[in-house]
């Protein structure tokens, strides 16, 4: 049989295959806390439980798995997150009551104000403090996915300025340091943090300043691709 | 409707879902070269092309995605690799002619002698020099998967002794250094390499020695979990 003929006769739906979903762990930073986006499930299974935003691949619309995640997050937040990275793929017979299932999980970051107005209008979508979410009984194995995403984010905060994606487009160095500290869970030395960031040349000084109580601090924005930069020594050292 | 009733009526096969496979990039070290296991495809699609070993989840047999990979690798090599790690999940409408498809890829390492006799008896399975495989027209997007696995392995060789899993259970320090050098693609300083490995206390001296031309060298084996150890500075420094 030729390949052409084989493909004409091939029907995916004739073979049993695990249920396939995509889930996103979307973080933001707001008022001193690291937060994660959760959805209260309105359908079976696990109806009524809080869950990570997720869904199925749309074979007509999506050209990649990242397209799927972005489409789902846009439905929930109205905007596309500036940072998205594949985290891990979980699979097994028991994680979903509908049967053997696989989910490809992603970590994403967004500024709180970027989607604030949209999220406030939707009743079953909310930002939850990560510390609180970690103690909730989330749907499926989402607790495990959240835990893994939290760990990955901690590594990112130690070795890169990826946490800046949880801030508005312009931010001060004390604000950036604060997000890093909240994610790492420890205070960082101000002088050393500032020097490391400056030496790596990751930020652009916008020329503007903002004062928050104290003296005015310079406003920065990220240089293009500076989220990809990895520090050789972590920022705690 | 209750969840129980919902689950009774739920049929996975009623929903179109991407084709789901698992692929493994199994590396070994033999006679000075890094090698990868390839299979000559005997079925459509891409019949006749060389491909990474892979296959479908068996919902009856497999309790996890790692079970799937191990089952498939055991079919090809007769043994279970001592090192296996999830690499990345690739998905899209064009990577497989049968339609929208997703593959969860894994990197694995094994000693050449552990499966030598089995592989020699099978006609369509072979170890290929990685440098050569990278120039071949592999099936599907397997060239891209191989490239990513090669990069991940390079990072592992810089920051851990994971490459030791491509050696027999006992090995000399010069042998371990050689595998690291082949994977990294650069010579390492002998004295510094030896000191770094010793300081991290990752190996157990078996008390035996082996001479290969020169003076006898001590034979080591890996301490339990020493593959998880990450050097703070990479081994080139």
From TrEMBL, chains A, B:
Alphabetical list of Pfam families matching this protein: NUDIX, WHD_NrtR
GO molecular function terms noted in the UniProt entry: hydrolase activity
Annotated signal sequence range: none
Keywords: Hydrolase
Stated name of the protein: NUDIX hydrolase
